[in-house]
Amino acid sequence: MLGNFTYCNPTKLYFGKDALENLHGELQKYGKKIVLVYGGGSIKKNGIYDDVVKVLQDEGKDVAEIAGVMPNPTIHKLREGIDIARKHGVDLILAVGGGSVIDYAKALAVSVHCDEDPWDKYFIRFEEPSCDIVPVGDVLTMVGTGSEMNAGSVITYPEKKMKIGHVFADESVMPRFSIMNPVYTMTLPKYQMIAGIYDIFNHICEQYFSGEDDNTSDYLAEGLMRNVIEASRKAVVDPTDYEARSNLMWDATWALNTLIAKGKSTDWMVHMLGQAVGACTNATHGMTLSAVSLPYYRFIMKDGLPKFVRFAQAVWNVDADGMSDEEIAAAGLERMKTWMQELGLVLHIKELGATEDMLDDLVNGTLILDGGYRVLTKDEIRDIFRQAM
Question: How many CA atoms lie within 13 A of 21 on its CB side?
Answer without folding.
Answer: 5
